[in-house]
Amino acid sequence: MNDFEKYYFSTTQRAMTKYPHYLELYERHFSPFRGKSPCVVEIGVGHGGSLQMWKHCLGEGTKVYGIDIQKRFTYEEKDIEIITGDQGDLTFLGKLKTIIPKIDILIDDGSHMSRDQIVTFENLFPLMNDHGVYFCEDVHYSYRPAFYETSYIKFSDYIHNLADYLAGELPYERGSVLADCIQATKGVYFYICAVVVERGPYDLTPSSPIKVGVIPMDQREETGPH
Amino acid sequence: MNDLEKLFYEGKHRITARYPHYFEIYDKHFSKFRNLDMCMVELGIGYGGCLQIWKNYFGPKAKIYGADNALQSFPEDQIELIYCRADQRESMAELRQKLPPIDILLDDCSHISSHQIIAFEELFPHLKDYGIYMVEDVYTSYAEPYEGGYKKEGSFIEYIKNLIDLNNLGTEMPITSFIQYFKQIRGVYFYSGIVVIEKGPRNVCDPVRTGNNGL
User: Fold this and answer.
1) How many CB atoms lie within 10 A of CB A104?
2) Tell me: the pLDDT tens digits for A29-64?
3) For chain B, N or C: smaller number of CB within 10 Å?
4) Contact A163 B161 (CB under 8 A)
5) Which residues of chain B make contact with A210, given a CB cutoff of 8 A?
6) Which positions in chain B touch A215 (Cβ < 8 Å)?
7) What is the C-alpha to C-alpha distance for residues B123 and B91, in angstroms, rounded to an integer?
8) Which of B4, B136, B168, B204 to mutate to test the interface with A (most CBs of A within 10 A)?
9) Nearest CA to B211 among A11, A194, A67, A153?
């Protein structure tokens, strides 16, 4: 059992509800931040149980911000701060940028509405540290008509596009918010019901493969396979 | 620099060409198999330089298979070459019959979408649980000469995107030929030029509530 699983299945602290298979994914993507005083932001607070889990499992110095559309309870705990606001409200997101420090881990377990998820991603992803991890939960909702507006792109399609730009190194127009997100993306991970986008600078120079090694004696004069 | 990069740049192997940023991705997904009794298969071998790098990276218990339609002959321990044609499903099926269960499959073959799909359908079922299926240079999925194009039906990338969609639909999924694959997929990962499909039991159940319900 990893730390997240141990905590999840034994805690008597505040309540939370997660898919159990996420716990392995938290360990996989969040454990590099353990003990490094990460800044964690989670959209969608519920009963607050997961905020305590991040703090407990990521070690001393972890700072957790929970963001929720409504103030569900009053509660005070060191290193955990709850901010009330709507993840789909651009004014609120703009204000949020001035309140919180640079983010290492961003978890979206908010409304699960496609537009909200995309707006949140585009506003907060550029604010993250290098190697930051964005974790969007319950993405299977974005296949259900009640969770997307027909006039707006579905979250699943949006992330597929991001994956296209990454995998194909497709050309894109510089200067847009989306361009900033594409440029900062190192990996896109699709799991059952969850999507992870990993930030990170990586060097794409040279832009063609490097050839190293010895050409076999018998083939020195031929043009063989690459 | 990770060990694979070191082996590559030392150059004590037959010639091979790679994008330099691939080494970090290889190491991330392959390192768990090092020094184990493992089986790796590479489709498309070129001069065979990479097979030698894999052998040195994975250690003395590894068995490395290279499959290609233009075979180089170089006798070397732990490395076996098998003739196969990427454009023929029967040939891929025959290849499968010659191979033990696979830990890592690396498709660096023709880079043509329909070939990549045939290889995936024939060989993914032969992967062990927690095995890694990696397709390299998927840039070609967006290039016409390789049957690719942005959002072009039939491209390997579009095929994989459909797989991801079905993976998330769960019980609402229509019954299709995909069902046999998605039931065995833990995750699908995209990097620049690389797609990885990780195999494994699905292990998914409904959300569980935990903690103190009074709080």
Assistant:
1) 24
2) 999 999 999 999 999 999 999 999 999 999 999 999
3) N
4) yes
5) 17-20
6) 14-15, 47
7) 11
8) B168
9) A11
Which residues on B lie below 8 Å from A19 (Cβ)?
204-208
Average pLDDT, chain B: 90
Pull the structure tokens for residue A27.
């360990």
Using DSSP's 3-state secondary structure scheme, residue A223 falls into coil
Rounded Cα distance between B22 and B10, Å, is: 17
Per-residue pLDDT tens over the stretch A170-222: 888 888 888 889 989 999 999 988 999 999 876 666 678 888 888 776 665 54
Prediction ipTM score: 0.91
pLDDT by residue (tens digit) across A110-153? 999 999 999 999 999 999 999 999 999 998 888 777 888 877 88
Burial string for B128-143 (b: 16+ CB within 10 Å, else e) reads: eeebbbbbbbbbbbbb
Residues whose CB falls within 8 Å of the CB of residue A218, separated by 6 or more in sequence, listed in order: none
* Closest chain A residue by Cα to residue B70: A225
135-154 in chain B: CB under 8 A from chain A? 138-139, 141-142, 150-151
Query: Which pair of tokens denotes residue A139?
Result: 């993405």
Residues of A serving a catalytic function are 112
